[in-house]
Write a structure and sequence with these properties.
Radius of gyration of chain A: 20 Å
Number of helices of chain B: 4
Strand content of chain A: 15-25%
Structural class of chain B: mainly beta
Number of domains of chain B: 1
CATH architecture of chain B: Sandwich
Number of domains of chain A: 1
Oligomer: heterodimer
Order of helices and strands of chain B: HEEEEEEHHHEEEE
Radius of gyration of chain B: 17 Å
Number of strands of chain B: 10
Shape of chain B: globular
Chain lengths: 247, 203
């Protein structure tokens, strides 16, 4: 606790841009016209980057973290494999990030999104909306219930199918930690084939987005659990200590 | 003791074409789950400061308007204070969250923010920065969220002293960060590529 207090307001570690996907990854065709061509300009972090918005529990509804129930008609539930997805939201220093807002969205069990621009053949599920959100607890722990999303084809010039995935949007305590990513499920053969996921170069980085089956938290005769920790940028404690010592 | 980071940040993935389902579900017709979409209203009658209206569009490398984008902003209040626990210089206006989020319109592609003119905030070396708004942009085809800043063109004196603007060598590129007055508000267009590609930062 003393440590995290000391780090209040300190700058975040530099982002490792080789670990993240590059902006321009032509196998994912949409990046061709949407990737900046100029080099990013280095920005020395100020309060504008080290501070960030705070979200209160009172903004979160009781069923927001339960995609099985939050759109379903009373007494009904969506079609598909019932799953819990859970883990900790940590910073790069291994500390839990409390009160972190996680927003998720996904396709239904057939691989169809509830969106007017999605015209895939698979039907909408009248009991599935596809969005959820929660705040991590004081240790950074998060958990939500949903239906396992289905794989689906997408227009990328060939016969491309997305692996089953859930989109994650994450806030830490500073706006520089803002992150949107996607999580996948272990054993999915589409993981190796996906141009979006393989925009990431390092197999270890890809693996960091793959949730593992967790039998320990699977509820017998009810719902399976998948586990995945999410890591946000950490504050640079070294830099902060040096500044305090006047170096 | 100094401590080296021992974990790697979760790698980014594109927000894809349906980011609005997760971030602004009511906007895409998913009603009854969240009472309201977070971040779409930043102002109340109690909010202190000059109201400003900002609108713009995001253009891709072919000059087409991006219609599946999402933009978030983070800014100080009228006194230059952030509504955040990490703000140690004072207490920000409780009637101003400082954070806003807007989709680009699905048909026209424009985005709109109604906010206040931010106060000035010091840089890490203590020099004052010009009033600015931090932006974070995601969409299909953007593998990692893009960070930029919006400065107000009518703050010429403050802009001339701003250390971040000064760090951009080419004055033509600096101009891509200026929102210009037009009609009842400011216009801030974002260009992902091309002659006038917006300056994006490694924050």
């Amino acid at each position: 606790m003393a440590d995290s207090q000391k780090e209040l307001g300190a700058a975040f570690n530099k982002r490792d841009r080789d670990w993240h996907p590059a902006a321009d990854t032509p196998a994912y065709r949409s990046t061709i016209l949407r990737s900046p061509k100029q080099k990013l300009v280095m920005l020395e972090q100020s309060l504008s980057e080290t501070t960030g918005p705070v979200f209160g529990q009172n903004a979160i509804g009781a069923l927001d973290h339960d995609l099985i129930q939050n759109f379903a008609q009373p007494g009904e539930s969506p079609i598909g494999e019932r799953i819990i997805v859970h883990g900790h939201i940590l910073d790069e220093n291994g500390r839990g990030v409390p009160n972190a807002l996680l927003e998720v969205w996904q396709a239904n069990a057939g691989g169809r999104y509830r969106h007017k621009n999605d015209s895939y053949l698979a039907p909408l599920d009248p009991n599935f909306g596809g969005c959820g959100r929660l705040l991590s607890d004081e240790n950074g722990y998060y958990s939500f219930r949903t239906i396992k999303p289905g794989p689906y084809p997408w227009p990328n010039g060939g016969n491309d199918w997305r692996p089953a995935h859930i989109h994650y949007s994450l806030f830490g305590s500073g706006f520089a930690q803002r992150l949107i990513t996607q999580i996948y499920f272990e054993g999915d053969p589409h993981i190796a084939l996906c141009p979006i996921l393989n925009s990431i170069n390092d197999p270890k980085a890809i693996d960091q987005l793959v949730a593992r089956l967790d039998m320990e938290h699977t509820v017998p005769m009810d719902i399976r659990a998948y586990r995945l920790n999410m890591i946000l940028r950490g504050r640079d404690s070294t830099m902060f200590e040096n500044r305090m010592e006047g170096n | 003791m100094s401590q080296a980071p021992n974990l790697k940040e979760s790698p980014s993935q594109t927000a894809g074409p349906y980011v609005h389902i997760g971030c602004t579900p009511n906007f895409v017709g998913i009603s009854g789950v969240y009472e309201e979409d977070a971040g779409r209203g930043m102002l109340s009658d109690e909010t202190k400061g000059e109201r400003i209206h900002i609108r713009g569009r995001i253009f891709d490398g072919a000059g087409d308007i991006v219609k599946d984008g999402l933009i978030e902003i983070w800014q100080a209040d009228a006194e230059g204070l952030y509504n955040s626990p990490d703000e140690t210089r004072g207490t920000a206006d409780p009637a101003f969250p400082g954070w806003g989020r807007q989709p680009t319109d699905l048909e026209r592609g424009d985005f709109v923010f109604d906010t206040i003119r931010p106060g000035r905030v010091p840089a890490s070396d203590g020099r004052m920065q010009a009033p600015h708004i931090s932006l974070w942009i995601v969409a299909r085809g953007i593998n990692i969220g893009l960070s930029t800043r919006l400065y107000l063109a009518d703050e010429a004196e403050a802009n001339a002293q701003d250390p971040v603007l000064a760090s951009i060598a080419d004055p033509m590129r600096r101009e891509t960060l200026l929102a210009v007055r037009e009609g009842d508000g400011f216009v801030f267009d974002i260009r992902l590529q091309g002659d006038r590609e917006t300056v994006f930062f490694d924050v």
